[in-house]
Design goal:
single chain, about 90 residues, alpha+beta, Rossmann fold, two-stranded parallel sheet, about 50% helix
């Protein structure tokens, strides 16, 4: 006989433990262009409609614009910064 959990599953218990998140958005368009023209729609949708609905708060964002036109040293600095943020759990 298989016992069913009483209203709780392992996934919901894991979701209770992880309540904060950090979004990283990389784009070829400049960040200001995305903010003014699209009213920052991709970030707003992810923050409010997806992660906010699931109960993730606070939600921090990092926007990196014009990735395609970055030179080698600038690109490696951004990669180091993103790696540092990921290792800190921020």
């Amino acid at each position: 006989m298989i016992k069913k959990p009483h209203g709780h599953c392992q996934l919901s218990q894991l979701a209770i433990l992880i309540t904060a998140t950090h979004l990283e958005k990389k784009t070829d368009a400049p960040t200001l262009y995305n903010l003014i023209l699209y009213l920052n729609a991709p970030i707003t949708i992810m923050k409010k409609m997806v992660l906010g609905f699931c109960g993730f708060k606070p939600i921090r964002t990092t926007a990196i614009g014009s990735v395609k036109s970055l030179s080698g040293p600038k690109r490696s600095k951004i990669i180091e910064d993103v790696t540092r943020l990921g290792s800190q759990g921020v």
